[in-house]
Write a structure and sequence with these properties.
It contains three helices and 22 strands. The strands form four sheets. An eight-stranded mixed beta sheet has the order 2-5-8-11-16-19-21-22. Strands 1-4-7-10-15-18 form a six-stranded parallel beta sheet, covered by helices on one side. Helix 1 crosses helix 3 and helix 2 runs antiparallel to helix 3.
Length: 233
């Protein structure tokens, strides 16, 4: 039995930005004027699980009324959870898969750029997180943005100070299924993180890394970015 590879055109990353209808934007304005943030979060729970168009529209309308910034043509899957939604900035054509959880902080900032695709069951410690445009985030992948100092040693670790470190995923990077990005890491432009990798240090642009901890495997070919058959430098 032969197994032939099938190549099909990408869909999400090639979509044009389609403006949301005026009535939906008007609904968000109405909600933000009529309800306090806490009431909107409670209202969100009524529409969080549904798969239909109306539930998805209501999720978008509530997010738009609470977030710092919210783009057009955003898809929010069922059972997507969050903390401190008001600290998020969401770009255009963003897809957020079902059962994803985004944990912000009251004084933090989370930016998700245009055309980002987030697979189901992903987790984001989003207290100081920037995901630039055109990033693919595999199902179940996670980012951690903080650790306890562990000092003084006499205290239980959970009682020691929390160190929040920025995490940045640069344009066009691809994060594999179930990968983990640790605090303070920058994943470079156009790089690839292998499935299940644990990324403990910065990843150069256009590198391919994998493993636990993640190690450099090779450079992506220039042919994929410049039409050149030579290896990237």
């Amino acid at each position: 039995m032969t197994h032939e590879m099938q190549v099909v055109k990408a869909i999400h990353g090639r979509q044009e930005i389609k403006a949301d209808p005026e009535f939906e934007i008007g609904l968000s304005s109405y909600l933000s004027n009529q309800y306090a943030k806490e009431a909107l979060i409670e209202l969100y729970a009524r529409f969080a699980m549904g798969e239909g168009d109306f539930d998805q529209m209501m999720r978008r309308a509530i997010w738009r009324s609470v977030t710092r910034q919210f783009g057009h043509n955003v898809s929010i899957g069922s059972n997507v959870g969050f903390k401190h939604l008001e600290t998020l900035e969401i770009g255009n054509n963003v897809f957020i898969g079902s059962q994803t959880y985004i944990q912000g902080r009251f004084d933090g900032k989370c930016v998700i750029g245009d055309r980002v695709w987030i697979g189901p069951q992903s987790y984001f410690d989003a207290r100081n997180l920037e995901i630039e445009a055109d990033v693919g985030w595999g199902p179940g992948a996670k980012v951690l943005g903080s650790t306890h100092s562990g000092l003084p040693i006499e205290l239980p670790i959970i009682q020691t100070d929390l160190e929040i470190k920025p995490v940045k995923i640069e344009t066009g990077a691809d994060i594999g299924m179930n990968a983990v990005i640790l605090p303070g890491v920058t994943v470079g432009k156009g790089s690839i993180i292998g499935a299940g990798a644990v990324v403990t240090k910065d990843v150069p642009a256009f590198a391919i890394v994998a493993g636990v901890p993640a190690r450099f495997l090779r450079w992506r070919k220039k042919s994929t970015i410049e039409g050149d058959s030579k290896d990237a430098e």
